[in-house]
Design brief:
alpha/beta; 8-stranded mixed sheet; two-stranded antiparallel sheet; about 40% helix
Length: about 350
């Protein structure tokens, strides 16, 4: 069968050879982009968006097609989570800044290796990494809700990584997704769309939780949301997904942020944390005392014991819960090349 001819093997459906047609489609899109042509429309004001003129009548360009009831629920949920995070600061600023510095050290060689690379950060959060990347690249930020984006400068847009407009395919040299994949509803769609968005030989940088106990996000442990993290990862699962979605792993490593950062989850312990914030912050302050760095587990145990009756949990479970919540363990970071 010649390229472009309809197949008769698809039970009456019309389809073409996928590999070649996809390549031809992407090449035509890249031609349009390089000429500054239109490649997408804002879903709110319907204005045509161009690379050379990245703005529309809306404050933030919206490329999310809200035709799915589950997606609308998901958007409302994450708008609530983001608002709570902005108001109550789920993580210390020093923790976020430390992670951003680490991520930038991994990314910087890839940015410098290309001339004005086009970089997309998915889920930029409070913009700790964005401020570093905007100076050295053609930086874009994408999120599913606008709570964070309104405070980030530069080129930004609302988008769903599980369903990206095909006009954006093959547009980015580097994609960054830190603390993103554990939240998405359909992980396979997200992996595939990230591959589609990258140019040939493009790079994907990931950071995700490593073997995180998901019990922290259960209703009976105090969470206020229907769901938060939906999965955790190991090196094996990252490698497996990489090969399944046509990525070549260049580096897959674990990093322990526990020594200098801790997360205040948006769950039941927050009310106790806020009541004793100053005291606990002094106890767990990074670098204050080597005793707390070397024996931080014992600090968490003592804190758990103090409130064991309030949580109505057995000692062993309370100890495990607080140890993981206050000292978020190792994470996985991965550098993957598009195959």
């Amino acid at each position: 069968m010649k390229f472009g001819e309809k197949s008769t093997k698809a039970c009456g459906s019309d389809w073409f050879l996928p590999q070649k047609s996809k390549v031809r489609h992407r090449e035509s899109l890249n031609d349009r982009v390089s000429c500054g042509g239109m490649y997408a429309k804002c879903q709110v004001c319907a204005q045509e968006i161009r690379w050379s003129n990245w703005n529309c009548k809306c404050e933030i360009i919206n490329l999310i097609d809200k035709d799915d009831e589950a997606l609308r629920f998901y958007l409302n949920l994450y708008a609530t989570i983001a608002e709570d995070d902005i108001s109550n600061h789920c993580q210390e600023f020093s923790s976020l800044e430390s992670k951003a510095r680490f991520d930038f050290r991994q990314i910087e060689p890839m940015v410098r290796a290309r001339v004005s690379p086009r970089v997309l950060e998915i889920g930029p959060g409070k913009g700790n990494l964005a401020s570093k990347l905007a100076k050295s690249s053609d930086y874009f930020s994408m999120d599913i809700v606008d709570n964070y984006l309104i405070k980030i400068e530069g080129k930004r847009f609302l988008g769903n990584i599980e369903k990206v407009p095909s006009e954006l395919y093959g547009s980015f040299d580097l994609i960054i997704a830190c603390d993103v994949l554990e939240h998405v509803l359909n992980e396979a769609n997200a992996w595939e769309e990230m591959n589609n968005l990258l140019k040939k030989d493009g790079i994907l940088y990931l950071r995700v939780p490593h073997k995180e106990p998901l019990i922290h996000y259960a209703r009976f442990t105090g969470t206020n949301y229907p769901f938060v993290h939906l999965r955790s990862y190991s090196k094996q699962t990252i490698r497996m997904n990489s090969y399944a979605h046509n990525f070549i792993p260049l580096k897959i490593r674990t990093i322990n942020f526990g020594k200098y950062s801790f997360a205040k989850r948006n769950f039941g312990i927050r009310r106790f944390y806020l009541q004793n914030a100053q005291n606990l912050r002094e106890q767990l302050k990074p670098g204050r005392n080597e005793h707390y760095l070397n024996e931080r587990r014992h600090v968490a145990i003592r804190f758990a014991q103090r409130y064991i009756e309030k949580f109505r949990l057995v000692k062993q479970f309370a100890t495990q819960l607080h140890t993981h919540v206050l000292f978020r363990g190792t994470e996985i970071y991965a550098i993957l090349k598009k195959g």
